[in-house]
Amino acid sequence: MKRFVYITDDDLSPGVYCNNKISNTKYNLINFLPKNLWEQFSRFMNKYFLLIACLQLWPLITPVNPASTWGPLILIFAVSATKEAWDDYGRYQLDKLANERSIWVLKKGIKTRIQAQDIQVGDILWLRDKDEVPCDMVLLGTSEPGGICFVETSAIDGETDLKTRVVPPPCIGLTSDLLHKIKGVIECPTPDKDIRRFDANMRLFPPFTDNDFCSLTINNTLLQSCFLRNTEWACGVAVYTGNETKLGLSKGLPEPKLTAVDHMIDKLTGAIFVFQIVVVIILGVAGNAWRLSEGQKIWYVKYFVKSAPWFEFLVIPLRFELLCSIMIPISIKVSLDLVKSVYSKFIDWDLQMYDENTDTPAVAHNTAISEDLGQVEYILTDKTGTLTENIMAFKRCCINRICYGEATGDALTDPMLLRAVHDQIPEVIKFLKVMAICNTVVPAKSGGSLTYKAQSQDEEALVQAAAHLHMRLINRTASGLEVDFLGDMLHVEILDVLEFTSERKRMSVIVRELKTRKIKMVTKGADETILSIVHPEQQCRPVIEAVEHYSQMGLRTMCIAWRDLEEEEYNSWSLKFKEASSSVTDREWKVAEVCQLIETNLQLLGATAIEDKLQEGVPETIQTLRKAGINFWMLTGDKQSTAIQIALSCNFVLPEPEGQLLHVQGRTQQEVQMSLERVLRTLRMSSTEPKDIAFVIDGWALEIALNDHKDDFEELAMLSKTAICCRVTPTQKAQLVELVKKCDYRTLAIGDGGNDVRMIQEAHVGVGISGREGLQAARAADFSLGKFMFLKRLILIHGRYSYNRTAFLSQYSVYKSLLLCFIQIFFSFVSGVSGTSLFNSFSLMAYNVVYTSIPVMTIVHDKDLREETVLQNPQILYFCQAGRLINPSTFAGWFGRSLYHAAVVFLVTIHVYANEKCDLEEMSMVAFSGCIWLQACVVPLEMNMFTSIQVIGILGNLVLFYVVNFAVSMIKWGGMHTIMYRICHQPAYWLAILLIVVIGMGPVLALKYFRFVYRPNAINVLQHFERMAASASSTAAATESPLRSFDKGSVPFSMSSSKAELGSVYEPLLCESQSSSVKRGDAPWVELHYYEGF
Amino acid sequence: MSTNGASTSDNGAVPAKKESKKPKYSRFTQQELPACKPLLTPGWVIAIFMIVGVVFIPIGAVTLLASNGVVEIVQEYENQCTRNFTTREQKVSFIQDSTAIKTCNVQLKVPKDMNAPVYIYYQLDNFYQNHRRYVKSRNDQQLRGDAVNETSGCKPEATTADGQPIRPCGLIAWSLFNDTYAFSKGVSTNLTVNKKGISWKSDREDKFGAIKPSPNYPNNQETNTSLIGGGRLDPDTPLNEQEDLIVWMRTAALPTFRKLYGKIEEDLKVGESISVRIENNYNTYTFGGGKKLVLSTTSWLGGKNSFLGIAYLTVGILSMFLALVFFLVHFKNPRPLGDPSYLSWNRKAHLSANSAH
Predict the structure, then answer these.
(1) P-type ATPase A domain: from which residue to which, for each copy (chain A) (predicted)?
(2) Model confidence over A305-325: pLDDT tens digits?
(3) Where are the alpha helices (DSSP H) in B88-181?
(4) Which of A18, A124, A874, B132 could form a disulfide with A242 if both were Cys (CB 3.0 to 4.6 A apart)?
């Protein structure tokens, strides 16, 4: 459980702990091939293809040349293996660079330069300014007075501001010489990946200090991959090395996410597999029956039961298995991967999602899940920094019953407050002092002007405001602060910092004023946590009212309090605190317990209010996305009234009477339960009213609801489209995402800060705002954006198009494979059910890899509707959310189409090429050309628009087909020798092709036309409208914008789901999403048209 | 790293320290390529179906005429030439009896003038040349003469009982069709049958080499008498001159097929009677296959086959009909395209508005 690190222990046998060699590589030269193959074969599809390929090596059963499967299979494997190898080589190069960096290390009392990979646990390392930290180490000394140093941790948590790290107290003041001789032991936990905690103890051996333990925290460490900044040198002892560092352990790829479409494709592939097995069994039985009856009579094949080996009965089914193996197209994965990476490139390239101010383009980190964006049903959003700018400005305050800033709108310019400061009213001075002291802000002097570096935007705003009111924090050392008030220097010694945690929601600093030697505790925090610990005799009323008032204006409030401490009280508490903070297990909890002991009987000074502006375009974005049927949940750490205020101002909830807010509250189980039930009753009752109902819950009640009333809460979550959850912790955010996911909704989580990372990783799609709270969220996310408003475009444009394209591509891939397979099956009925392949090996291979892959890839440029139309009619997203374009019903359409087309190709071919023309090789090429021509018509019919790329892809492919086949026909020893020349000279060939195309496409076209004009779905209507608008604007100067929104009046989102209305809705058979749309409360007003396919 | 394609700045004028990450503009990257968006409007669709009709009906007529211009005489003889044996067993034992006389005479009437060349085909029914065991049972290398003793893939007709390679090996060659026909016009004028050039030129030149069949071909020793295989090959003629074999080895795709037997380079006049002396050697009786003798002229489309003509006419008429239906429906019941009230969400808005009143 624990590791004991002896500082500069040269006797330590190497090998107890690993050396500092970093290895991020997945493979090495020896294990690359087996490991990579093993990984590739862990996918079902690949296993299946390998099995097929192996079966084909048995010449008795293979209908075609094994190369037709081995070729593409090896190609696909080689491509992905090469990609892996290339990536891994890149990682190896980076590792090598890091490992061979030279580092000053103390060896046997002498400073020597060694390579970073040779660092051992216990070594003392010297770092210079701007050096990268090679391993996790405990700081022992720095060049700065007071034993502090600054680090940049952006490689670990993405935050670019400088952080302070301090030398542990026993080592403060040690000179460089002494550091050469230092001996001691550090007791630290076994390596873990929590970069916020380091619960360890250190004891120096005599003569350095007494035998006292000193507790260490993360503030005493330098973690691997941080950079030393603004510090001449720092020295420390290595505690975790190599891949056992905190960074090394937290590395590793997150679980790959699968999209809903992927799941659907898997399901459909499974269905095809079952269908294939059924076909194989039927044909196998039929084939064996034929062999045993007719087969005995056809003497010319010498098919004798007696001389046949025992496994003969297996041969025919296996042959059919191989013949039908093309039903599951080997190319589908490759084509999907390819187009998906193009989608993500489109996201990266999109100029309309580029934020000029911060120079941030949108980035798709996860290239595989773009189409899930189009199916999002729930968006769970953070508030601060996501909906708001996260630029804090101190606006109001309330000190001693007087609210400042009411008249001017800004407390900093309120003459009353300025006068109060000038008059040095004691309450105001105290208030400002707390503002200046109670924080972790580091003042930095740069060229005469004072700037503040803070981890929290709120703190920075408070310190800035205090400085503006002449209470200037000018210096911070490891143990003290200097505050300048109108030339009056105030020195305070910091005794303890009771840190802010999301559970405590307050922070306190215990200081000793050097002038008066008095100990004081200053506290700031959320109002409810402060008010509960205020001295019971104090009047809190005015402050509570002020806080209420501020939060209704959407301001972030904070209460400020203070307390004088007696020397004895502090000393006795201090011991407990030390003990708690040096405990190795459960430290956080123990510290919180101890903190509570002293944080009582505070004197409330007042409240501050900080404004956080809404980001531009947030209300419109939310309105549009809500029209698209996306439900919003706001998960914020902020207080309830602020959250509600922000929610109102950004269209999140509607004011009365259109909207209604229901509160779920309570402190105990019973209260929460009753409240939940009441809210549920109201919701059920009002479900028919066109009213926008949202519920509000706070973290406390949420905890109870999630633990004890999960079922009720789930129902509530499903009934209510909008929710505001305030005061929630990062864990609860992730829990809420999980809850919505469990109800079978596609979720998107969007956030900007470290507290959103878990929710972003948990959701189906995680979106990070590259905001001011660092890049942590953006790094963990699948997509990162510069601003919240780009979400509209990301979902409605990129998500929707990606979904449409993937839906077509995947179903088309199956269709074209099935087409060929059905022809083979039909042919087996005229070839004695013996498993003869009509098509030759080359054609089979080229069909999937070339002829049918190229044209359909151009779908990446297809758009069914123009971007403006989609943005103005966001309701159209319903098609994607309900999975209208790929589901068992549409798939059945494609299945039927392939069956029909196969029948057309087969029947026309065998009738035209009957009698004296019925040569096998010729007929094979006629049927094959028929398939290619049908493809060349199906693809354009399903596409909605034609750019030059599409035209080149489709026509070029036809040309390619003939060029390739003419070339192959020139090969003398090939089976196809001269075939293509012969058939192209026959008028019958061209007549047959024309007939196949017209019979094949005629009914499809007629049906499509009929639906398009007489049973149009919403997409069709909008397409018509686009056309009309285009012609209208070209003929007459349109007075109003031709592409107005079709939305007649605001449509409140009805939650009705009465059975009667459901009945009137056209719901086709074979519709899997029927059940899911019933589940969705909005089913009735979604008219269901499953017309795609066929 | 994922934006490296996009991050190259075009903003060179600004002396910024960091390169701008602004993506480059191009119509491709912004998905703004110029495009045409055809819609299935009534006009287009009716026009398409009309055009199909207008094009297909004449084509159908022409092809049907071409097919009807072909004169064809089909004479079934598998039952006529078995000396009145009725049961299959009798027929089978007759055909397998190597001593029996299998000659039979058949009279054909010429129904119409047949211009030279008149093609002679034999047609087999219910014969599976496309059977998996059969179609692969050959060795192209051997046939080409590249490797005379190569017999891989030829099982079960690869080697003789004593291990000698069979040449040509395989089931296809072994089962060579061996009925023969002799034609005479009227009473005794012999009609010469030209058997040169009945196979594909490319086959003679590139697929079959100048190798000679193995002596005593076909190999029938290992099997009992009931399995005697098909035709014999002249051991002194190289394979590329044995055109019957070359034709036979172009395997047929369907169980009913015709293969060219020869050509009569002489016009046949209407009403002439042609007598054919058939050597009925080939065993189709075990599997109940049919044998037919076909004399046919040819057209630009090939032999007599009215399928294309009828199909084109039918499709043409149907598509005209559809065009008419669409036209009528469109004019009787014009749909205002792009009416926003068709949108489900607007309809719902109406519904809820109505129900609210």
Answers:
(1) 101-162
(2) 666 677 778 888 888 888 888
(3) 88-96, 132-135, 140-144, 171-174
(4) A18
Residue A1085 has pLDDT above 80, yes or no: no
Active site residue A1047: no
- Residue pair B46/A1006 in contact (Cβ under 8 Å)? The answer is no
Q: What is the pLDDT of residue A967?
A: 92
* Cβ-proximal residues to A1007 (8 Å cutoff; 6+ apart), any chain: A1094
Please tell me the distance from the alpha carbon of residue A924 to that of residue A361, in angstroms, as a whole number. Answer: 52
* Residue numbers belonging to the annotated binding site of A for Mg(2+): 382, 384, 752, 756
Residues 6+ apart with CB under 8 A from B231: B176, B177, B178, B218, B244, B245, B281, B282
Query: Residue B156: is the preceding peptide bond cis (ω within 30°)?
Result: yes
Contact A764, A741 (CB under 8 A): yes
- Which residue, B261, B101, B112, is CA-closest to B180? B261
Return the closest-CA partner of residue A714 out of A687, A643, A723. A723
Q: Name every chain B residue with its beta carbon within 8 A of the beta carbon of A1049.
A: 349
Q: How many other β-carbons are positioned within 10 Å of the β-carbon of residue B178?
A: 17
Partner A contacted by B151 (CB < 8 A): no
- H or E element: which one contains A494? strand A488-498
Question: Is B253 near chain A, with CB under 8 Å?
Answer: yes
User: DSSP secondary-structure letter at A355?
Assistant: B
Q: What pairing do the DSSP bridges indicate for beta strands A162-166 and A148-152? A: antiparallel
- Binding site: what residues of A are annotated? 382-384, 459, 500, 524, 556, 636-638, 727, 733, 752, 755-756
Beta strands in A1031-1071 (DSSP E): none
In this complex, do A908 and B343 lie within 8 Å of one another by their Cβ atoms? Answer: no
The bridge status of strand A631-635 relative to strand A722-726 is parallel
Report the alpha-carbon distance of residue A502 to residue A1038 in Å, rounded.
57
Which stretches of A234-328 are DSSP H helices? 246-250, 260-292, 294-297, 312-324
pTM of structure: 0.79
Q: Tell the residue number behind the tokens 């019953």, with chain if given.
A: A401
CA nearest B132: which of A315, A515, A626?
Answer: A315
Q: Which two tokens stand for residue A153?
A: 């941790």
Task: Tell me how close the Cα of A1048 comes to any Cα of chain B, in angstroms.
Answer: 6
Beta strands in A882-935 (DSSP E): none
Q: What would the pLDDT profile of B8-38 be if each residue is shown by its tens digit?
A: 333 433 344 456 778 888 888 888 888 888 8
Interface contacts (A, B; CB < 8 Å): 301
How many CB atoms lie under 10 A from the CB of residue A43?
11
- Edge-to-edge order in the sheet of strand A2-6: A2-6, A184-189, A200-204, A214-216
SS3 label, residue A836: coil
Winning range, highest mean pLDDT, from A541-555, A769-783, A912-926: A912-926
Closest CA to A815 of A922, A929, A942: A942
Q: Closest Cα to residue B222, out of B164, B177, B175, B162? A: B162
Angstroms from A468 CA to nearest CA on chain B: 33
Q: How far apart are CA A654 and CA B188, in angstroms?
A: 107
Task: Report CA-CA distances (Å) from A29 to A82, A85, A99, A252, B65.
Answer: 13, 10, 19, 20, 72
Cα torsion B54, B55, B57, B58: sign: positive
Which is the catalytic residue, given A131, A136, A382, A862? A382
> CA A1082: distance to chain centroid?
27
CA angle B135, B136, B139 (to 5 degrees): 120
List residues bridging with A187 in a β-sheet: A4, A201
Please tell me which residue of chain B has the smallest CA distance to A995.
Answer: B312
**Residue A244 carries which side chain, given as an amino acid letter?**
E
Task: List the beta bridge partners of residue A237.
Answer: A124, A138
